[in-house]
Amino acid sequence: MSLLQGKKALLTGASRGIGAAIACALAKEGASLTLVAHPHHEQDLKQCADKAKGCGAKECNCHTIDFADTAAVQKFAEQCASQNYDVLINNAAIFGSHKAEELGPLKGNPDDWDRVMKVNALAPMRLIRTLAPKMVDKGEGWIINIGDVEAVHEGPHHPAYAASKYALRGFGLSSYEVLRKHNVRVVDIAPGNVAQTGMSEKSDMHGGQGAFNPDDVAEAVLFCFRLSKNAVPEEIVLKAVKPGTAA
After folding, report:
1. Of 1, 38, 46, 109, which residue is most buried, by most CB within 10 angstroms?
2. What are the pLDDT digits (tens) for 69-111?
3. Residue among 242, 238, 153 nearest 191 (CA)
4. Residue 3 domain-assigned?
5. 2 in a structural domain
6. Using DSSP, how many helices (H) and how many strands (E) does the chain show?
7. Structural domain includes residue 243
8. CA dihedral 48, 53, 57, 59 (to 10 degrees)
9. Contact between residue 150 and residue 100 where contact means Cβ atoms under 8 Å apart
């Protein structure tokens, strides 16, 4: 039996990189998918959907949305609430400026920070708030937030981006304590620098610590479903073993 046979999964940030890898991994395990990305990435999203179908997705629908648009996010979340998703994976994120100093306290642009917070933290929080009650009603569900190692081991590189990931991590860990008694599991996966993503191509986000592949993050997602029903990996931190590019 496939891990996700008969399950419905909503995945954001699905057009490329980590999201695309997760989409195929879920598809191979029999999930029906709803894939979401920014309108600018619509073509990539369609290609990802085609690949997911080829990997075995029972069903694959696409939606585009700007997660910085609060009203649009709320409307989309409410539309999703009636779909009875078993799995929510919050992967969509932006880095904001790719100049480290512009994400920090000396030269940072707070208006840019607002967008980073909306996309990386507030939009996922709205999705969780809207979908979690439905999971509680079913007595089962998975919420997996793709965070970042910068929310676990703070550093001086990108404070505003790190703050958004801290917010998502904190909301997720606290939500787990609320939802665990309803058999709804919440997991934070915190990757270090991942190769072949839009952000890693423009900035070595983690100070030369090396990179690994998006498939490694997808495997961490699948690990969550491989455990027994009474076990949950609250946090998974992924780092490269040594400096250099991904194998």
Report:
1. 38
2. 999 999 999 999 999 999 999 999 998 766 665 667 778 888 8
3. 238
4. no
5. no
6. 8, 7
7. no
8. 100
9. no
| Token output for 109 | 């642009």
pTM of this structure: 0.92
36, 230 Cβ separation under 8 angstroms: no
161 included as an active-site residue: yes
Supply the range of the domain harboring residue 150.
8-238
1 assigned to some structural domain: no
Q: Which residue bears the tokens 């990189």? A: 17
C-alpha span between 4 and 9 (Å, rounded): 9
CATH, residue 46? 3.40.50.720
Strand partners, 8: 32
So what's the pLDDT on residue 154? 66
Q: Cα(238)–Cα(193) distance, rounded to whole angstroms?
A: 9
Q: What's the total number of domains in the chain?
A: 1
Q: Is residue 228 packed enough to be buried (19+ CB in 10 Å), middle (13-18) or exposed (0-12)?
A: exposed
What do you get for the CA distance between the two ends of the chain, in Å? 31
Task: Give the angle subtended at the CA of 162 by the CAs of 35 and 243, to the nearest 5°.
Answer: 90
